[in-house]
Fold tRNA(Ile)-lysidine synthase.
Amino acid sequence: MGPHPAVADVRRAVREALADIGEGRLVLAACSGGADSLALAAALGFVAPRRGLRAGLLSVDHGLQPGSAARATEVAALAPALGLGFGEVLTVTVGTAGGPEAAARDARYQALAAAADRLGADAVLLGHTRDDQAETVLLGLARGSGLRSLSGMAPAAGRYRRPLLDLPRNVTVAACRALELAFWDDPHNADPRYTRVRVRSRVLPVLEQELGPGVAEALARTSKLARDDADALDEWAGTVFRDCALSDTGGQVTLAVQGLERAPGAVRRRVLRRAAIAAGAPSGALSAAHVLAVERLITHWHGQKALDLPGGLAAVRRYGTLILAISPIA
Ligand SMILES: Nc1ncnc2c1ncn2[C@@H]1O[C@H](COP(=O)(O)OP(=O)(O)OP(=O)(O)O)[C@@H](O)[C@H]1O
């Protein structure tokens, strides 16, 4: 008898995500003990030896909940039974920047990256599922974000891979049950103070009920289309940026207005964003509203004065050029 279909699905997803990793290389699973990352770690433990890969498990102790250290230790200790070479606990100190969720995530990614470097791993696997992707897209939509944000989480970004991004959450739960793996239900995942939890437990069920089943799947599909489109527009913007850039020295970028006028708005705004960042604007602080304001120096020109942007940057139109520079512009 073959494996349970859910187990087979998760293993296939992991096998496919590791297709380009060479024999003898090390792959790590980031595992919180929840159903998603536990099913992921078990699949890695199954696939790795058959592919001639080395594999390990990392469990992060955020130190935010009572008993978190003991749980991280327990999860790490599962490694041998899951077929993984080793399990390690990474203890982090969570700051406050950006709110508790963002701070925990930052600390987690930093610790995972440092461990991957130290251990010489080629990839770190994360257990995000299709439902996580749907929630991310919906949150982006509600914020009124652009295509890049609607494209959600990338299946592969740097050393991180998300093999389960096409699988619904109930598959990981079914896989854990079939393998008799006891998973942990994070109480945070049911805490309605978190926006994401409300999207998961209230918003998506209403959408499914009112619009019909398959909403999560459709949102995940949207994210893939959006990612492709965003990639194409970024590439186009790269070409226009190169064509328009009269000078690009750290701290100052000068663009030819004519080239910007000719470009479609979607491309122009991407070029302007890129130029502002190249000139020194912090990308996190540069909003769509800032970019739109700079765009008006191109599309609605009537002799405006210099415009202030984050990071002490100023944008000014002078003769046929747009100058983005750390102010004051000489
Ligand atoms: N404490 C942790 N230790 C190691 N990896 C983690 C930890 N928390 C999250 N991750 C990784 O990040 C992914 C996404 O985390 P998130 O908090 O969104 O999920 P989760 O609710 O913990 O899900 P699950 O544990 O069921 O995968 C997890 O699937 C896992 O790969």
Q: What stands out?
A: The chain has a mean pLDDT of 95. Residues 5-221 form a domain with the Rossmann fold fold (CATH 3.40.50.620).
